[in-house]
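Title: Prediction job returns without error message
Component: structure pipeline
Severity: low
Priority: P3
Assignee: unassigned

Description:
Job completed but the reporter wants confirmation the result is attached to the right record. Sequence as submitted:
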Amino acid sequence: MAIGYIGRTAAETSETWARLLGPLGRRWRERGERRRQIRIEQREARAADLEDMTRQRDYLAGALDTCRSEHEATAGYLLYDARWHYDAELAAAAAGYESPAHLSLRQWRDVNGVGR
């Protein structure tokens, strides 16, 4: 058992040992080369996957930054706009004018089918 393992390992790693062990050594050597080639291909595939995932992460990070800045600008404007409408409605009420009905964001989304 141990001799077979040692012989197989020696043949897989050394061309000289593979020749010394004859046809069985050459078979073990070829198997070792196939395994080595598979490991190389797997390593290359992992490197390509990692590079692709890194590219995707960088793209998504940029897209997230864009969304974040757009959201912050929109949120700031909505606060300003709500305050403006509130003040305008108070001024109109003080002057005796009745403002037309205004839809909330949720009502507007329901009416226009947005966000379903």
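Comment from assignee: result matches the submitted record. Residues 60 and 66 are 10 Å apart (CA to CA).
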